[in-house]
Write a structure and sequence with these properties.
Blueprint (H helix, E strand, L loop, with lengths): L3 E5 L4 H12 L3 E6 L5 H8 L4 H4 E5 L9 H4 L4 E4 L11 H21 L6 E5 L3 H4 L10 E2 L7 H10 L3 H27 L3 E6 L1 E3 L9 H10 L4 E2 L3 E6 H13 L5 E5 L2 E4 H11 L8 E2 L10 E2 L2 H6 L6 H14 L6
Parallel strand pairs: 1-2, 1-4, 2-3, 4-5, 5-7, 6-14, 7-11, 8-10, 9-13
Antiparallel strand pairs: 10-12
Helix pairs in contact: 1-10, 5-8, 7-8
This protein binds NADP nicotinamide-adenine-dinucleotide phosphate.
Length: 332
């Protein structure tokens, strides 16, 4: 009998890889999707090796209480990955914060009433670790003991006038509130939970649609005149998914795990792209004339203790560009 686990938001970028690698490892996967009748969300899952024998789809929505009960029933592990990751919302509370926070409590509520559940792995974000007032310079090493500051994120949305950046911070706010609510809930209910806190995740897309972190790369290679003055962390989706699985399988795993290969200013990202693809038309100037936002480091020690061996950003960028090309998201 193979072990049964649940993956929420299974049609998403990270969750699709999670379902693929869990099936490969012999698990039976109960996967939740919002619309099981939409082939754009399910065909790539149903085509995975092992899906016919060991993948079951369940309809569930973060906003509906009790919606995940059937998907969680009988599972030993629950990977809660579903959460809206978008920068284009009109109502951040309704479109980002409520589904992230209430949705997480909703999934954990199903876990609390399911005695078979031994561990929950929550997909959080490196933003919930690093976004605070502490100075960040290339020699600063952020680790899992750091926590983001909600006020910093709320203020940041006011400092930046640009709509895009404003909204990006609302996504971060949704992740901070969701992780915080999750820790409170599991401590109260005695649920064993581990969080995975990745930075921007890239690599090959299994799903046919464009997800937000992939679109950050697509923007650069699809005719942008300038690059934004930002420094983000990047990591390969296979590292992120393996971290989820190892955090579930390793009995001693606990707390939060940052999963970040490298923090790079967008100018550095353009340099890597130029070296890999000299013929691409890439932006050659920054969107503003302020000093470049500093890079910093995020400790890899805890992720490495799980057995993660990080894929270099250059390889991850090549994988995502090839995937975007193959899926015809941009003309070569
Ligand atoms: P994605 O491709 O957009 O997937 C998000 C998933 O959440 C989708 O399957 C979506 O379902 C589901 N979802 C959204 N609202 C829902 C609702 N109300 N009810 C049920 N499901 C809902 O994003 P991703 O990049 O894979 O991100 C997955 C997780 O990783 C999220 O928790 C995100 O915050 C976290 N994360 C992502 C990155 C990154 O760079 N990609 C970095 C750090 C953390 P539909 O398919 O039906 O829309």
């Amino acid at each position: 009998m193979s072990k049964t686990v649940c993956v929420t938001g299974a049609s998403g970028f990270i969750a699709s890889w999670l379902v693929k690698l869990l099936l490969q490892r012999g698990y039976t996967v109960k996967a939740s999707v919002r619309d099981p009748d939409d082939p754009k969300k399910t065909a790539h899952l149903l085509a995975l090796e092992g899906a016919k024998e060991r993948l079951q789809l369940f309809k569930a929505n973060l906003q509906e209480e009790g919606s995940f009960d059937a998907a969680v029933a009988g599972c030993e592990g629950v990977f809660h990955t579903a959460s809206p990751f978008t920068n284009t919302v009109d109502d951040p509370q309704a479109e980002l914060i409520d589904p992230a926070v209430k949705g997480t409590l909703n999934v954990l509520g199903s876990c609390a009433k399911t005695p078979s559940v031994k561990r929950v792995v929550l997909t959080s974000s490196a933003a919930t670790v690093a976004y605070n007032y502490k100075p960040k310079t290339p020699d600063v090493v952020v680790d899992e003991s750091w926590f983001a500051d909600l006020e910093f994120c709320k203020r940041r949305k006011n400092i930046y006038g640009l709509r895009g950046l404003q909204l990006k911070m609302w996504y971060v706010v949704s992740k901070i509130l969701a992780e915080d609510a999750a820790w409170k809930f599991v401590r109260e209910k005695g649920i064993d939970m581990v969080t995975i806190n990745p930075s921007m995740v890239i690599g090959p897309l299994l799903q046919p649609t464009l997800n937000t972190s992939a679109s950050a790369i697509l923007k650069l290679i699809n005719g942008a005149q300038t690059y934004p003055n930002v420094s983000y962390g990047w990591v390969n989706v296979k590292n992120v998914v393996n971290a989820h699985i190892l955090a579930y399988e390793t009995p001693s795993a606990n707390g939060r795990y940052c999963v970040v290969e490298r923090i790079v200013h967008h100018s550095g990202l353009v340099d890597i792209l130029r070296k890999l693809y000299p013929s691409l038309q890439l932006p050659d100037k920054c969107a503003d004339d302020k000093p470049f936002v500093s890079t910093y480091q995020i400790s890899k020690d805890k992720a490495k203790s799980l057995g993660i061996s990080f894929i270099p950003i250059e390889d991850s960028i090549m994988e995502i560009v090839e995937s975007l090309k193959e899926k015809k998201f941009f003309a070569v």
